[in-house]
């Protein structure tokens, strides 16, 4: 049997029943072959960033998973869960029923078409770092060599 890798997933939703979408995504992730949800953060409300000015606020969370899936297969599983929950990708940063981002996959560093690990904007986003810090404050960012908590502390308080 393959050994498990700790990975972290960012979750967000700003359409329909946001909390239900995030909880459904976590449940589907936990039922996926080769994936086990270890813990999930509380939900945190954040303003929408980067999208249309009238975008509704997001609920965000983070989940730690243990997986035997390789990174690309795990990403495909995340995209499949988004589709199962009704996500249709049209334009970048549009309001969405669910968004699942693979933030980190163990200490893996990858830069391939369609897949960059760790997530390239992880260290810049309070809405990702805050929930992630609640479940894995001492996790180390593979390329920056800093803990999630220290990356959060380095962000400006009011961007």
Question: What can you see in these coordinates?
Answer:
The chain has helices at 18-31, 71-84, 126-135, 148-154; strands at residues 5-13, 35-40, 44-46, 58-67, 99-105, 110-112, 115-117. With 159 residues, the chain is an alpha+beta fold. Strands 1, 2, 3, 4 and 5 form a 5-stranded antiparallel β-sheet that branches. A hairpin with a 2-residue loop joins β6 (110-112) and β7. The chain is globular, with a radius of gyration of 15 Å.
Per-chain topology:
Layout (H helix, E strand, L loop, with lengths): L4 E9 L4 H14 L3 E6 L3 E3 L11 E10 L3 H14 L14 E7 L4 E3 L2 E3 L8 H10 L12 H7 L5
Antiparallel strand pairs: 1-4, 1-5, 2-4, 3-4, 6-7
Helix pairs in contact: 3-4
Quick structural overview:
This protein is α+β, with helices and mostly antiparallel strands and 159 residues long. The chain is 28% helix and 26% strand. It has one domain: Alpha-Beta Plaits (2-Layer Sandwich).
Structure characteristics:
159 residues; alpha+beta; Alpha-Beta Plaits; five-stranded antiparallel beta sheet; two-stranded antiparallel sheet; 4 helices; 7 strands
SS content category: alpha+beta
The global form is: globular
Helix share, percent: 25-40%
CATH topology: Alpha-Beta Plaits
Give the tally of β-strands.
7
- Helical segment tally? 4
Q: What is the percentage of strand-forming residues?
A: 25-35%
CATH superfamily annotation: 7,8-Dihydro-6-hydroxymethylpterin-pyrophosphokinase HPPK
State the low-pLDDT regions, or none. none
């Amino acid at each position: 049997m393959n050994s498990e890798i700790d990975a972290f997933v960012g979750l967000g939703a700003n359409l329909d029943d946001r909390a239900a979408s995030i909880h459904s995504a976590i449940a589907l992730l936990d039922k996926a072959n080769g994936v086990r949800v270890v813990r999930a953060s509380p939900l945190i409300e954040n303003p929408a960033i980067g999208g249309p000015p009238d975008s509704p606020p997001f609920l965000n969370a983070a989940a730690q998973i243990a997986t035997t899936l390789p990174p690309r297969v795990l990403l495909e599983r995340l995209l499949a869960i988004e589709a199962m929950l009704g996500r249709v990708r049209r334009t970048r940063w549009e309001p969405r029923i669910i968004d699942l981002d693979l933030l980190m996959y163990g200490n893996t560093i990858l830069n391939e078409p369609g897949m960059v690990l760790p997530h390239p904007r992880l260290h810049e986003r309070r809405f990702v770092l805050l929930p992630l810090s609640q479940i894995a404050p001492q996790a180390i960012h593979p390329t920056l060599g800093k803990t999630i908590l220290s990356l959060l502390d380095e962000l400006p308080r009011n961007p």
